[in-house]
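Researcher: I'm preparing a figure for a lab meeting and need a structural model of a single chain. I don't have an experimental structure, so a prediction will have to do for now. The sequence is pasted below. Please return the structure as tokens so I can convert it later.
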Amino acid sequence: MKDIDNTARAEVLVRALPYIQQYQGKTMVVKYGGNAMINAELKSAVIQDVILMSCVGIRIALVHGGGPEIDAMLKAVGKESRFVRGLRYTDEETMEIVQMVLCGKINKDITALIQQSGGRAVGVCGIDGGLLQAKRLVSGGEDLGFVGDIETVETSVLEDILNSGAIPVVSSVAIGIGTEAGRPLNINADIAAAKIAGAMKAEKLLLMTDVQGLLRDVQNPDSLIKTLTKAELEGLKTAGVVSKGMIPKTDCCTLALEGGVKKAHIIDGRLPHALLVELFTDEGIGTMIEN
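Model: Understood. Here is the structure written out token by token.
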């Protein structure tokens, strides 16, 4: 395939200019997970997108998951993964592995990759500086073990990093308060990203997923819903259009919007440079939800 010529390259930049101007100085929270964390090509594209966003003046916080890596480590030690209402049951041994994998290996690998690619990043977990403070979560009367429900987000931890010109890379382990004071608690990364975005009154929350976005008909990829309001989303839930794994994703979007985020996006992280396409083109790539 022939490369685009210089005029076409310039046209791409000119078309992106209004969006760059609109978002300069604004805060955005990206939840990084799914296939984009596993596939080397996609991983490189995400890191490039994040660095570019930072370079054009967007204050970006990157919140990451790590489910597959945690599953692999649990399997390696002969421990079975178990989920309750979509949340990982976390006993003491599992919590140690979650903390080791998320806060140690994955967080520092992402931070190093940003640094290696020419960006500046500071890796933190929710324990650092009391960034994420949580109580033990009880869901439907079922025991989830050491799973946390975030009570407080200490945004100054992230603001200090952002004000230094660096990108905070956040792993979703919180520090316990109340009866669990000082104990690490496991937090679902989507929920952590939504809570952080709300606390920071972010311009956008962008959830990178392994689906195209919200489809009106899951069997028809052409039925992507590009924009809708929170009220319209609730109507789709009632009608059963939103179901299965999309329910927790849209619930996180609603949580972020209720917290003060202007717009929440569900985008397909399986596509290279999905973040740039969603932010800097007229067409976008996923589903945008607003109040």
